[in-house]
Design goal:
four-stranded antiparallel β-sheet, alpha+beta, about 45% strand, globular, 2 helices, Alpha-Beta Plaits, 4 strands, single chain
C-alpha cells in the first residue's frame, strides 16, 4: 500500500471540541508520526500540527473528520514522495 507524508494544520477555536479531536486522532494513531500543539492565549485558540504517513484516502478522511468538528478548522499539505 502506497503512503504519503503529510501535515495536517488544525486550528481549534472552541475548547469543548478538544475531547472529540483527541478521539479522532487516537482512532488514526497508527498513521501519526508526531504532533505539536501551541496554545495562543491572546486569541483564545490552539494551533496544532499533526504529521502523518498514511494512504491518501486516510489522510483526507482524517482531515475531513477533524474539519467537520464544530469550532475546528483543518487543512492537509501533502509531500510529493
Amino acid at each position: 500500500m502506497d503512503t504519503r507524508v503529510a501535515v495536517i494544520g488544525i486550528i481549534v477555536e472552541k475548547p469543548e471540541a478538544v475531547e472529540k479531536l483527541n478521539a479522532i486522532l487516537h482512532e488514526y494513531r497508527d498513521y501519526v508520526i508526531g504532533r505539536m500543539g501551541v496554545p495562543y492565549r491572546a486569541r483564545n485558540l490552539n494551533v496544532i500540527s499533526v504529521a502523518v504517513d498514511a494512504p491518501g484516502d486516510k489522510i483526507a478522511a482524517l482531515a475531513g473528520k477533524i474539519g467537520n468538528l464544530d469550532g475546528v478548522s483543518a487543512k492537509a499539505a501533502y509531500s510529493h514522495v
